[in-house]
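The material for today's practical consists of a large collection of protein records. Backbone structure tokens are a discrete shorthand for how the chain folds in space. An example says more than a description, so a record of this kind follows:
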Amino acid sequence: MKQPNDTVNSADENNGSGIHPAIVGWAIAAIVLSIISVTFNNSAMVLGAGWFAKCLAVLVGALLGWLGALAGDAIRKFAHPDAVFTNGGIFSLIWIKVFWALGPQMIGLCVGVFFGCAMVLR
């Protein structure tokens, strides 16, 4: 039992509990991208689909996009280099840092959303 004068670090209390903010962020990004990909697509595949098919495409696209972003994050954590060498200057270094921060997740997100939407609307 805790005594009144015991101090506990708040990071220790929340360690391992709750949902990681990145998981929620990638889920929101997948939902937004799947809605945009179905709404603003002028292909015959989307224009000929009914309302229910479009809603199902958004749901499947969001789910697969979210899973693709999480898979991309796992790949990023595994393959992220410890050091980078460049001869292109500061902009090349910034590009490399931005790619390794968001690149694999964005690739997985886009592939998952587009594949999921196309699979339903096919």
Q: What stands out?
A: The chain has one domain: 20-121. The helical segments are 10-13, 21-39, 44-47, 51-79, 90-121. The CA atoms of residues 4 and 15 lie 22 Å apart.
